[in-house]
Amino acid sequence: MAHVRLIAMATAIAALSALVAAPSRATTSACASRALDVWLNTQAGTAAGSTYYRLEFTNLSAHACTLRGYPGVSAIAANGRQLGSPAGRNRARTTRTVTLAPGGSASAVLQITDAHNFPPASCRLATAVGLRVYAPGATQAKAVPFPFPTCTKAGTVTLHTESLQRA
User: Fold this and answer.
1) Of 13-22, 112-121, 142-151, 156-165, which gets the smallest average pLDDT?
2) What is the arithmetic mean of pLDDT over 101-110?
3) Of the N and C termini of the chain, which has fewer Cβ atoms inside 10 Å?
4) What was the pLDDT predicted at 26?
5) What span, in angstroms and rounded, lies between the C-alpha atoms of 8 and 10?
6) Contacts for 19-25 with beta carbons within 8 Å, 24 or more apart?
7) Rounded to an integer, what distance in angstroms lies between the CA atom of residue 143 and that of residue 75?
8) Residue 145 burial (C-beta neighbours within 10 Å; 0-12, 13-18, 19+)
9) Integer CA distances (angstroms), 38 to 19, 34, 104, 110, 122, in order
10) Is 26 left (phi over 0), alpha (psi -120 to 50) or beta?
C-alpha cells in the first residue's frame, strides 16, 4: 500500500514540476488605434440598392495584436461632424477574435445603402466626405476619406458593418 502511495506521490510531483517548468503562453493584447492603418478597399460589389466594400485594418506595430467584434462607422461632413445615424450591425458572420501579426490585416464588410432609396422626408440627403471608423473596442477613431451620398436625419441607417474577419 505504501508503494502505491509513493508512486502516486511521485507522479503528482512530476506533473507539478512539468507545469512549473512549462513556458507560459504570452497573451496578445488588443490592437491600439495608433498602431492601426484603416482604409477602404474600393473594389466594390453591388446588390439590391447597396454597395459593399471591405474596410481594412492593418497592424503597423512590431507586435501581434488582436481585434474582435464590429467596427464603429459613421458618415462625416467636411467639418468632422457626424451625418445621420451610425452604422448598424449585420450579424451574418460569427464574431471571432482575429490576431494580426505585424503587417497583418483583418477586414469587415461595409454596406452603404444608396441614400436615394429613402423618402426625402426621412433622409435629408447630403454628401459625406468620408467615414469615421473605430476599431472594435477602440475609443479613438480614424478618418477615411470617401465621398458618398448619405442621409443626415437620425434614425435612417444607410451604413451596416459585419464583424471583423481575417483578411
Assistant:
1) 13-22
2) 97
3) N
4) 58
5) 5
6) none
7) 10
8) exposed
9) 41, 10, 12, 13, 31
10) beta
The residue type found at 33 is S
What's the rounded Cα separation, in Å, for the pair 96 and 141? 21
**Domains in the chain and their CATH numbers?**
33-166 (2.60.40)
- pTM for the whole structure: 0.82
Distance CA 157, CA 149 (A): 12
CA dihedral (11, 12, 14, 19) positive or negative: positive
Q: Which three cell numbers stand for residue 26?
A: 504570452
The one-letter code for the residue type at 116 is: H
Residue 27 banded pLDDT, cuts 50, 70, 90? confident
Q: What are phi and psi of 114, to 5 degrees?
A: -60, 115
* Burial readout 85-109 (b: 16 or more C-beta within 10 A, e: otherwise): bebeeeeeeeeeebbbeeeebbbbb
As a whole number of angstroms, the distance between CA 86 and CA 68 comes to 19
How high is the pLDDT of residue 48? 87
Contact 158, 125 (CB under 8 A): no
